[in-house]
Every structure is written in structure tokens, then in C-alpha cells.
Amino acid sequence: MDTPTDNSTVQTSQSILTDWLALYHTSGIGNRCFHTLLDTFGTPARARQADTRQLQEAGLKATQIEALRSDSRQAIETDLHWAEQPDHHILCLTDKRYPVMLRQIADPPPILYARGNIDCLQQLQIAMVGSRNPTQPGLEMTRQFATHLSRCGLLICSGMALGIDAAAHQSALAAGQATVAVMGTGLNRVYPARHRELAHQIAEQGVLVSEFPPDTGPQQNHFPRRNRIISGLSLGVVVMEAALRSGSLTTARHAMEQGREVFAIPGSINNPLARGCHRLIREGAKLVETAEDILEELGELARSQLLLENEHGNDDNSFEIQTDIDNTGDQDYDRLLSALAYDPASIDTLVMRCGLTAEEVSSMLLILELQGHVTTAPGGCFVRVKHERNNT
Description:
Layout: H1 2-24, H2 31-41, H3 44-49, H4 52-57, H5 62-69, H6 73-83, E1 88-92, H7 100-103, E2 111-116, E3 125-129, H8 136-151, E4 155-158, H9 164-174, E5 179-182, H10 196-205, E6 207-210, H11 222-232, E7 236-239, H12 247-257, E8 261-264, H13 275-282, E9 286-287, H14 291-311, H15 331-340, H16 347-354, H17 358-371, E10 374-377, E11 381-384
Parallel strand pairs: 3-4, 3-7, 4-5, 5-6, 7-8, 8-9
Antiparallel strand pairs: 1-2, 2-6, 10-11
Helix pairs in contact: 8-9, 8-17, 9-10, 11-12
């Protein structure tokens, strides 16, 4: 008895998506025009059915009207065939799976192509962006921040570019967390090509998204457009390192226009890659020195966003930014903290006490130090910081 209803629902959804794709693939109909047609006619189907006079009154030129009447069946079928593959998805703006944060911006993509776990798109995200040619300290700081923030419950969102972007994605993956990559190409075309394996890992563990049809190659004007999606998906944008003409500043300015938080890491006045961050700070971005600064700033904003998402049918109230490593339930961290106690100990001593590798201990100590649970001591040792508990 249920089968006819289910088939009917599938056919209706397919028909709606076909109308969206037909309008999306119409030559000369860009984002702004697409949204104008939606505002005027309500749905892509009604826009396509409108007569010439109605379309002219909506502001369309003769060439656009002619293109709207042309057949885009091949492009539509190519997209639909792509979406038949496992973990391939096409989301139109009215799809309940479309990310709530992105829908709030002034010019959200009418269509999103996604590959991977699209549930990630409904989770709270923090964007991390920066130079394609970062300094070594900039890379190290990116790895520390991305590891810490992802383990505390925020998905790392970035653009999968060389340098800071790649380091942020890789660090989240290495921490066992999902990550979101917004691409400036179609999802069948990885750019830069050396990131093919990284793209595969992100699709397996997180999600790749793009507003461009799957076979779209790299074009220079696509990457600034991509940047508004990175900021639009996120609660805020962290600029790790950026020169004065960096594309990361474009992402930050999109974030400001979208009402999102902007964070910038200060650096040496002699470092050209710190100048973009310093300019952002002068323009009102929040200066941050630790990942904890970001978590404290986003706490209330994250809770407000959860309430908004619940209004849109997302009933998952499980998200909580974790600022205390003692409460994460991570047994390795618990073991390391127990091994450290409040007496200074070297990394070699801690390795013997807790059974972890030296690399694991070193990485975890960096996170604990960022959180204020550990501090350095003379002789290359570490000591646990005692926190006063409120017993009232």
C-alpha cells in the first residue's frame, strides 16, 4: 500500500529538482537573476511557465528569455546521473537538507552539489583560511587551532587550497573529525590536482560542496564566489596568515557582510603574511591568541544558532562546545593528565607512564597547553595547571 505513495513522492521531488536545474543551467541567468525570478514567481516551475511580458516585467532581457525557452535537457540529465552515484547529492534552496546557515546570507547558491556526508552541513562550523604560502609557524598554529576546535565540536570549513586551507582540513581529519571543503570547481574536478587524495579523504570522512556543476573546471572568477560560501556556512572565519592582497581577506569581508564573526591571528610587524590580519584587526576583527578565545566568543552564538536550526526542523540539541578537556570523554587525554599530575615531567617520562607514543604526547600537550591545562617548566618539562573548582 505504501509503494505508490513513495514512488509519487520520489517523482514529485525529481520533478521539482528538474525545474530548479533547468533554471540554474539557463545561460545568462546568474545568482541575482535567479533570486529575482524566485521572488517574482515563487518557484522555478512558474518562472519557466511565465509569458514573455511577465518575464520582461521581472527584468529579463530578450536574450535571457530566449535562453529560458531553450532545451537544457542534456545538462539536467548529466547532473541527475551524477547524483545517482553513492553519496552524491544535489540540494536546491528549498531542500530541508540545505544548510541553514548558508540559507541566511543575501545571495545563497540556488543549487549546491555535495559529495560525502551531507549531515555535516547541518553541524556548526568554523572557517579557517589563510595564505597559500604560509610560514612554518603559521602552519603549526593552523594545525593546533584546527585540531583543538574540531575536537571541541566545531567542524572545520575551508577551501581546500594549498597552504593554510589544506593544513586545516588535514588536521581535522587526523584528529578523527569531519571537515567541510568548499570547492571553486565542480566536484569531478579537483584543484589543485595534488589534492586529489585529500579530496577523497574529505568525501569519506566529511563532505565536499560546490555551487558549480560537477564537470566545471577551475576559473579565476569562481574562487571569490566560493569564498562567500565558506563564510556563509560558518559561525565565523579565522584568518591565520594573510598578505594585504590575499583572497582570505575576501572571505573575511564576506563574513562581515553576512554578520558572522571574524577572528585574526596577530603576527610580527616584519612578517608580510601578518599584515592582512593586522588590517582586519584594525577594521574590527577580533584579535585571538588561542583557540580558547574563539570558543569563548562563539559559545552564545552557537546556542542561538541551534535554536534557529530547531525552528527549521533540526531537532538535534546534542551540540555543545567543549572547553574543558576533562569533560570530553577522551580516554587518551584523561590518561595523559593523570600521568602528568601536578609535578613537572618530561615527554619521555610521560610516554613511559601512559603508554602513548612521543608524537601523540607532544601533540596532545600542545592542545592541553592551548586550553590552559598544562604549562611548560624548566628543562623541557611540563606541569599540570591546577584549576579551582566552584563547589557552591
